[in-house]
């Protein structure tokens, strides 16, 4: 099965989240965060198997900047 990983840097760690399942993990590198996410997602799916996988739609959007006084 293929899933989507969203990775963001938070201070000195990378946090990876599986968009379809909602599992989250972290690592010191992007590769480590994604590898840890693979493991966490696999363990989750062993306990809570999915019957039908919905495809994630990845898009971006813009929010107008807020003026500060």
Structure in words:
The chain has 69 residues and is α+β, with helices and mostly antiparallel strands. It has a single domain (1-69), classed as Double Stranded RNA Binding Domain. It has one helix at 30-47, and strands spanning 5-10, 13-18, 24-27. A hairpin with a 5-residue loop joins strand 2 (13-18) and strand 3 (24-27). The longest helix has 18 residues, at 30-47.
The SSE order reads EEEH
CATH topology label: Double Stranded RNA Binding Domain
CATH class: Alpha Beta
Number of helices: 1
Which ranges are low-confidence, i.e. pLDDT below 50, for 5 or more consecutive residues?
none
Strand order of the largest sheet: 1-2-3
Helix content: 25-40%
Rg from Cα: 15 Å
What are the SSEs and their pairings?
Elements lengths: L4 E6 L2 E6 L5 E4 L2 H18 L22
Antiparallel strand pairs: 1-2, 2-3
Tell me briefly what this model is.
With 69 residues, this protein is α+β, with helices and mostly antiparallel strands.
Structural key phrases:
69 residues, Double Stranded RNA Binding Domain, 3-stranded antiparallel sheet, 1 helix, 3 strands
